[in-house]
Design goal:
With 543 residues, the protein is of the alpha/beta class. It is built from 17 helices and 11 strands. Helix 3 packs antiparallel against helix 5, helix 5 runs antiparallel to helix 9 and helix 8 runs antiparallel to helix 9. The longest helix has 54 residues.
Length: 543
């Protein structure tokens, strides 16, 4: 195992120190439940011996009552243990996923350029859960299973040294065999996990493009492409896992089905010689079956720890906080300024922007023009501080935009992208997004974007479907614009934000935006292929 990954894994485990109390409570109760369960099974051998020896009826029934009471207690403890165990398990996973999601939102844009959607989803939902379960449950599993193994082997050795020794020897051989299979499984699991993420990404992309696939009338091409991915890549990785699963099943069947029967046959020899009782044979049979689970769990613990150490590097990257610049504060009364001094901006060794110099102040309305692919959207992202300028600087109110803490920068700057994100929820929630706004304020903003009549007709509690499925393209754009305007930005950026609007709605909305900019002394920066936005601007920047 990589020593650096081990260190990262230990640091990740420490993230769950707040759950140590619950962990100890679960450990003690699970140990109690385990001992109770094994004692219940142990009692049965005594009961069988009483019956075989034709003991007095009262004594038999008394033992039967004790076993019944112990069984009820073991059953109740087992149910409670399962409930508490799974609640704790999901608490761990949810805490990790919540932490990862919070950190994701604080990552710089370059992080998302380097990761696919499938990679991110797989890391949060799978790798994160793996680390969480390992941190909170694996040690519990280790202690509980070792306790169970020691109790079982100790009792069996005490009952018959030779039979008990056979049990220990076969158990050790089984553990070594399972460990060997798990080692092979580890070597193939990483490739399988990557193919799973790739397939998820493939399916996500095709689902988003389903309307284009239909209209291009190329369903057969995409079906073949997906079929090829499934069978030539994903299934090839899965087939190696399947082979190992079959081996694992075979070894497990030997120990869980054939070996207990073998112990009964071997025990019968000792019974014939009068060295053990029928109840003792039954004890060996049931305890042999009980031994399989902790041995499997011990092998899984080792395998799981190896996988977690491997995943630690990927997860650590998500949870590592971004470097932030402290002390940069932009006073509310300070005049808003945007200064561009971009000598060169390159991405992946390719020049995208060169020699761009401009300065804008409060009240300026700037139209950025250029051919498709000239870097208009890239320039807007530089103004937003998403990326550092390769040579030069973009300043907001005298400070390097990339160095301003995001909370401070986006308190005064807002951008509406070409493809707005619409959430499943109410109309009110989609505008407010957690902000505390009166219904009166929301309706005022909706009036600016020509959605007030819609809101009055359907109500602010109107339920919007996933991705705005029950809204038109123009309504989505207007709703996205409303959530930007209600926050009164000092710098308003619109990237092709009116493309989905009809001529009349666009005319009214642009008049309202122009008035909004003048009243709030906002800097307006826009890109568009339509003339409406160009006409309200008093400055121009050509790329």
């Amino acid at each position: 195992m990589n020593s650096e990954n081990k260190v990262k894994y230990r640091e990740l485990v420490r993230l769950f120190r707040n759950l140590r109390g619950k962990q100890l409570h679960l450990l003690f109760f699970c140990m109690f439940s385990t001992v109770l369960e094994l004692y219940f099974v142990y009692q049965i051998q005594g009961f069988v011996d009483l019956v075989v020896s034709k003991a007095p009826w009262q004594e038999v029934m008394k033992e039967f009552g004790r076993i019944g009471l112990t069984g009820l207690l073991a059953f109740g403890a087992g149910l409670y243990q399962m409930r508490v165990w799974h609640v704790f398990r999901y608490t761990l996973m949810n805490q990790m996923r919540t932490m990862m999601y919070g950190k994701l939102l604080k990552k710089r844009a370059v992080f998302f350029d380097e990761k696919t959607t499938g990679d991110i989803v797989s890391a949060v939902m799978n790798d994160g859960s793996l680390i969480a379960e390992s941190a909170g449950i694996s040690v519990l599993m280790l202690v509980l299973n070792m306790t169970k193994i020691f109790i079982i082997t100790g009792v069996l050795l005490a009952r018959n040294l030779l039979l008990g020794s056979v049990e220990v020897l076969v158990g050790a051989l089984y553990f070594l065999a399972v460990n060997r299979i798990n080692k092979k499984m580890r070597e193939n699991y990483q490739a399988f996990s990557q193919e799973t993420a790739n397939l998820s990404q493939h399916l996500t992309e095709d689902t988003r493009a389903v309307l284009e696939i239909k209209t291009l009338n190329e369903k057969e091409f995409f079906e073949k492409r997906f079929y090829s991915h499934i069978w030539e890549k994903f299934f090839q990785a899965a087939r190696r896992i399947i082979r190992l699963d079959v081996c694992s099943y075979g070894v497990n069947s030997l120990i869980s089905i054939i070996f207990p029967v073998f112990m009964v046959l071997l025990g019968s020899v000792f019974l014939y010689r009068g060295e053990i009782t029928v109840g003792c044979i039954l004890l060996f049979y049931t305890y042999t079956q009980k031994l399989v689970e902790p041995l499997n769990n011990m092998a899984d613990f080792y395998r799981g720890t190896q996988r977690c150490v491997g995943a630690a590097d990927r997860i650590y990257e998500y949870l590592t906080p971004e470097e932030t610049t402290k002390g940069v504060r932009i006073a509310p009364e300070e005049e808003t300024r945007v200064e561009l001094d971009i000598r060169r901006f390159a991405w992946k060794e390719q020049d995208i922007l060169n020699d761009i110099h401009a300065s804008w102040k409060s009240g300026d309305k700037v139209f950025i023009e250029g051919e498709s692919g000239s870097g208009k959207t890239t320039l807007l992202k530089l103004i937003c501080g998403f990326y550092p300028v390769t040579e030069g600087v973009v300043k907001i109110c005298g400070h390097d935009a990339h160095a301003i803490p995001e909370e401070e920068l986006f308190d005064l700057l807002k951008i509406q992208f070409q493809e707005p994100v619409i959430l499943e929820g109410t109309l009110r929630e989609n505008v407010a997004l957690g902000g505390r706004y009166e219904d009166r304020e929301i309706l005022q903003i909706l009036e600016l974007v020509q959605l007030k009549e819609f809101a009055l007709a359907h109500g602010l509690d109107y339920w919007i479907q996933e991705s705005g499925g029950n809204l038109s393209g123009g309504q989505k754009q207007r709703l996205a614009l409303a959530r930007v305007l209600i926050r009164r930005p000092r710098i308003l950026i619109m990237d092709e934000a009116t493309n989905g609007l009809d001529a009349e709605n666009e005319r009214i909305i642009l008049e309202n935006i122009e008035r909004f900019v003048e009243e709030n002394r906002t800097i307006l920066i826009v890109t568009s292929h339509k003339d409406g936005l160009r006409n309200i601007c008093n400055k121009k920047l050509s790329l």
